[in-house]
Amino acid sequence: MPCREFYGQLVDPKNANILKLYRQYVLLRVTDLRGIDVALFDFDPDSTLYTFVMTAEEQILLRYGGRDDAAAESYFSEKSLQLALERGLEQFKLAKEGKVEKEPRPAPVTPADYPDIKRDVIDKDKCVHCHQIGSGKTRKAQAAGKLDKAVDLWVYPEVATLGITLDVDKGTVVKKVDKAAKEAGLKAKDEIVQLGGKTVLTYGDLQQRLHLVASDAKTLELVVKRGDAQETITLKLPEYWRVTRIERRSTTNALEPFPEFWGKPLDDTAKAKLGIKKDEFAAEVTKFWAKTNGQAAGMQVGDVVISVDDTSKCAYTENPVLWIRLNRNAGDTIKVKVLRNGKQMEFSFKLKARPW
């Protein structure tokens, strides 16, 4: 586990309950991932905090961490941390008694196994940071011609997409249900204790198990504690259940091609002012940095991109920058329509793999 100061403002330093729990742990903070087995310690590399509770033999007992599109700290709270620490001690006792299932250890992978990280970071004696693992995975798969853009980039999906809102302070207790979860019969105050046949004790566990569900799965089995009984619920997965705003991720930012401009998606209010519908493309060009083909073709900072190759909407993103990355390749020539001072303009240019 990280050192107590790593939690910053999450924990009151005078919280006697948490301090008592800390003293029962060996606390370890990792600031450099060189040498870490990132196959065993698999985690969302775009998190600001991720904690593993484990035995000395590196049997992982639970996770505390994870995030959503809204914020990096959505699932952090002093109460949820205390609950995770308490459950970690319970799991450790059970593990000593041989009552916690040992999962097969995957083949080891270290950051040095990703060529970009080895060349640009490790060989220059720099620290390996979490986000570099995400970009390293993308670039290695891309270079080998093994990257499936429709599958591999949609990592660590959110339970909210399934219609599940958790009570953050209570771990995996459901606060509110909607969409697929409501249709399946999940109820507020249910506590999710298993997902896909595996025990979950925290939000971190829940998101990790959801991440491992096959992308083409049609249903998801949950076991919930309802009162004093347990019930099994089969949830029908919606078509785009893995979709999040992956443009914020290091895995996506390493993706080829480069769209030839950087852009910021507009919110619904800004779209309405321009007469653009909520589900249509709209991204304001924010910068070029390098001399890009988009800029050479005539695009300017402040332009609002509203379509690419006559596509103005799609089911999984409202961001034309992301759409280009997912649907076009380096060397392709694209046609981009923008709004500038109330007028539509059109530009055509070739995509490079990277900006420089």
- Shape call: globular
- Give the integer mean of the pLDDT values: 94
Number of helices: 10
CATH class of the domain at 256-350, please? Mainly Beta
Named CATH architecture of the domain at 256-350: Roll
Strand order of the largest sheet: 9-10-11-12-13
Instruction: Work out the helicity level.
Output: 10-25%
**Annotated CATH homologous superfamily of the domain at 256-350:** PDZ domain
Distance between the termini: 39 Å
Secondary-structure element pattern, one letter each: HEEHHHEEHEEHEEHEHEHEHEE
- DSSP strand (E) fraction? 15-25%
Low-pLDDT segments: 1-9
| Helix/sheet category | alpha+beta
Largest sheet: 5 strands, antiparallel
What is the C-alpha radius of gyration, as a whole number of Å?
23 Å
CATH topology of the domain at 256-350: Pdz3 Domain
Number of strands: 13
Textual characterization of the structure:
By secondary structure, the protein is of the alpha+beta class. Among the domains are: about 160-235, Roll (Pdz3 Domain); about 255-350, PDZ domain (Pdz3 Domain, Roll), CATH 2.30.42. Helices cover about 25% and strands about 20% of the residues. It has 10 helices and 13 strands. Strands 9-10-11-12-13 form a 5-stranded antiparallel beta sheet. The chain has a 4-stranded antiparallel beta sheet with strand order 6-5-7-8. It is globular and about 65 Å long. It starts with 15 loop residues before the first helix and ends in a 6-residue tail after the last strand.
